Amino acid sequence: MMMYKKSTLMPSTTILGVDPGTTRIGYGVINKNGSHLRALDYGIIEPTKGNGRFKDIENKLNGLIKKYKPDVAAVEKIFFSKNKKTAISVAEARGVILFILERNNIKTLEFSPNEIKAAVTGSGMSGKRVVSEYTASALGLKKISGYDDAADALAIAVRASFERGVDMMRC
Predict the structure, then answer these.
(1) Catalytic, out of 71, 76, 133, 152
(2) How far apart are CA 90 and CA 106, in angstroms?
(3) What pTM does this model have?
(4) What is the CATH number of domain 12-166?
(5) Is 71 an annotated catalytic residue?
(6) Residue 167: is it exposed, middle or buried by C-beta count within 10 angstroms (0-12/13-18/19+)?
(7) Catalytic residue among 133, 148, 149, 152
(8) What residue segments make up the domains of the chain, in order of their start?
(9) 76 is catalytic
(10) Which long-range contacts (CB under 8 A, 24 or more apart) does 76-81 make?
(11) What is the pLDDT of residues 96-133, one digit of tens each?
(12) 148 an active-site residue?
């Protein structure tokens, strides 16, 4: 009887986290290999104002997709605020982002802000500083520099990495 040794190779998964916003869209790209997480890139997309805003988001997001070829994406669900104009603007950007991800055949997960905070820190009530610190720690970074939007996008990607079966979600 032949015995087969189980493979110890874990699939590597690239995850793109996106934090939609009105004037800035945060992005974070991480790699998951087994239980090890590593940040590949993070930053913000600052689309032009007015006409051409959606095309600008498309061009910049497509550039990230082309460069990193994510297996999975995760986008934050809309958090409704008192300012309806802001909520509508964020919803518009979010819709464009979801459309671009779908058009690129990228499996997309969506999480609420509280789901992200709870998964990363253990509490859905954690503040931005605590989320950023826990996210940095999970990714082996000393700190996440730059805008909160980028740190939030990395936290969204980290949350997606905890999703059961994320390693098998390749398109």
Answers:
(1) 76
(2) 21
(3) 0.90
(4) 3.30.420.10
(5) no
(6) middle
(7) 149
(8) 12-166
(9) yes
(10) 76/18, 76/19, 76/20, 76/110, 76/111, 76/112, 76/113, 76/116, 76/152, 76/156, 77/110, 77/111, 77/112, 77/113, 78/20, 79/112, 79/113
(11) 999 999 999 999 999 999 999 999 999 989 999 999 99
(12) no
